[in-house]
Design brief:
The protein has 317 residues and is of the alpha/beta class. Helices cover 49% and strands 15% of the residues. The N and C termini lie far apart (50 Å).
Length: 317
């Protein structure tokens, strides 16, 4: 397990607990009470740290190297039922955007999401989770297939942004994202969006329009990353913590501004500290929200979705 700077007190206690357990195993000394006290202190420290996180600390947690990615969620939720589908039928198969069919219980879903890599090689293979236009066009192709066969769509968002390279712009990055937003507003099947990590800019919005938008507790959703905001306003990355606070990018801020529907609580210590529990929580949330949405007709779904987004940002002076 890797630890962030503000998690170091937790690391020290975990190491103490491990040493205590080893002493108990290798000698005849009864360390049960000592271990129990360390465990109690560990729980208290963990609660104290995660209860008072700043916006920047939540950004750091969303990028935690041990945090589960899109494919981790899909494999845990769907098991062997997941069938990945490839290509946009136009240019190529974008490895940063993955999608396919999977089941929760007896219900089929079309899963779509950005995938990051676990090490240097896979990060390059996945282009660091930054999709090209063909990634968004693949996502749209899969959504249209889901609509044809009346299958609900689940989008898992985790991206530092759409790929900003010249080639992506030449192939119509902006148009591809805009097309997805338009088509998603009028898709005739339920769409459930879950932000599981970073939700940056148009890269997130390209698969981010939904009947229900859920945000995990330690994630962020914004038009720009704190570092980029800092570099534009102060010509330096040093002010990223101030930028993170000013951007109002946390799940709590998003809920307060009515830009998302629900905050999904993570296990104590974040999603990376108890991956199995996190997968179970997300699976149950998807199933519960689908149970609510399946009662609506296609016309009611589209009307409610359009009204929801049309009302965002309305200010009554």
């Amino acid at each position: 397990m890797e630890y962030l700077e503000f998690e170091l007190p937790i690391k020290e206690l975990v190491e103490q607990l491990e040493k205590c357990q080893i002493i108990g195993e290798e000698s005849e000394v009864d360390v049960t009470e000592t271990c129990r006290q360390i465990e109690k202190k560990l729980d208290e420290t963990r609660k104290d740290i995660y209860k008072n996180l700043s916006a920047w600390q939540r950004v750091q947690l969303s990028r935690h190297p041990n945090r589960p990615y899109t494919l981790d969620y899909i494999k845990a939720i769907c098991g062997d039922t997941f069938l990945e589908l490839h290509g946009d039928r136009n240019v190529k198969d974008d490895k940063a955007m993955i999608g396919g069919l999977g089941k929760i219980g007896d219900q089929s879903f079309m899963f779509i999401g950005q995938q990051k890599g676990y090490n240097t090689k896979t990060r390059q293979y996945r282009n660091f989770g930054m999709a090209n236009p063909e990634g968004y066009r693949k996502a749209l192709r899969l959504m249209k297939s889901a609509e044809k066969f009346k299958i609900p769509v689940v989008c898992l968002i985790d991206t530092p942004g759409a790929y900003p390279g010249i080639e992506a712009e030449q192939r119509g990055q902006g148009e591809a994202i805009a097309r997805n937003i338009l088509e998603m507003t009028r898709l005739k099947v339920p769409i459930i969006v879950v932000i599981i990590g970073e939700g940056a800019s148009g890269g997130a919005l390209g698969i981010g329009v939904g009947d229900r938008v859920l945000m995990l507790e330690n994630t962020w959703y914004s038009v720009i990353s704190p570092e980029s905001c800092s570099s534009i306003l102060w010509r330096s990355w040093e002010y990223k913590e101030i930028a993170a606070e000013a951007l109002k990018l946390t799940a709590t801020d998003m809920k307060k501004l009515k830009l998302i529907d629900e905050i999904v609580r993570e296990p104590a210590g974040g999603a990376h500290s108890n991956r199995e529990k996190t997968f179970e929580i997300v699976k149950n949330k998807i199933a519960k929200n689908y149970d609510d949405l399946k009662k609506l007709s296609p016309k009611e779904l589209v009307t409610a979705r359009m009204n929801k987004y049309a009302n965002m940002g309305v200010f009554n002076g």
